[in-house]
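User: Here's a structure from my thesis project, written as structure tokens. My advisor, Dr. K., wants to see whether a designed sequence matches the one we expressed. Can you design one independently, without my sequence as a hint?
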């Protein structure tokens, strides 16, 4: 067998594919129940939420539309700069839609706080947040995610969409990196 360098960088697997699948199914069922008679639009925040979005939308068994936007708030480090830049905006006019923003992880909250305020001004019928992972200890601004996969402690995680320096997004599970990978 060839060596797999990506997996060699992982110190510990925190959430297996099966565990993640279970969380996604549960959250999908919650959204399907709450939006059965609404006009659901799932807004995926690229790139981190791409794996979650792909699985979550298939766990929602009611009519739904999807759209994507891309914002950047990180350089190659592990901390939010506080500056959120719209790299790709939505295609759909939000008026009348019940928006669920789909995010990979809620950390300081700065990114989602900015996004919520921006999207609210576009006149949707309602707007809520769905995040796979939540790090409540790290919160710097008050942001509420109605739908959450799970709470995690303050550690930097990668995989299932989450990156370090744009790498590891394609890991099928979520883990923590070995400290030497950060070059520290
Ligand atoms: P916030 O603005 O601090 O809440 O940052 C949210 C964004 O930071 C996420 O969408 C991720 O791109 C990134 N991020 C925060 N924590 C992690 C992590 O543990 N691993 C990978 N990316 C993270
Ligand atoms: Mg990122």
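Assistant: Designed independently from the structure alone:
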């Amino acid at each position: 067998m060839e060596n797999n360098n990506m997996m060699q960088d992982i110190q510990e697997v925190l959430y297996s594919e099966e565990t993640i699948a279970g969380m996604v199914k549960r959250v999908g069922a919650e959204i399907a129940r709450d939006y059965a008679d609404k006009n659901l639009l799932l807004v995926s925040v690229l790139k981190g939420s791409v794996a979650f979005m792909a699985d979550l939308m298939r766990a929602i068994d009611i009519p739904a539309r999807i759209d994507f936007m891309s914002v950047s708030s990180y350089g190659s480090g592990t901390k939010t700069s506080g500056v959120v830049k719209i790299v790709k905006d939505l295609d759909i006019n939000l008026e009348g839609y019940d928006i669920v923003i789909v995010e990979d992880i809620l950390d300081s909250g700065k990114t989602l706080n900015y996004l919520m305020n921006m999207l609210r001004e576009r006149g949707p019928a309602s707007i809520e947040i769905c995040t796979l992972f939540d790090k409540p200890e790290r919160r710097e601004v008050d942001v509420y995610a109605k739908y959450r996969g799970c709470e995690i402690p303050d550690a930097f995680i990668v995989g299932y969409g989450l990156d370090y320096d744009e790498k590891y997004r394609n890991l099928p599970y979520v883990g923590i990196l070995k400290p030497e990978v950060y070059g520290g």
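When you compare it with your expressed construct, this may help: The pocket of magnesium ion (ligand 2) is lined by residues 48, 74, 163 (CB under 6 Å).
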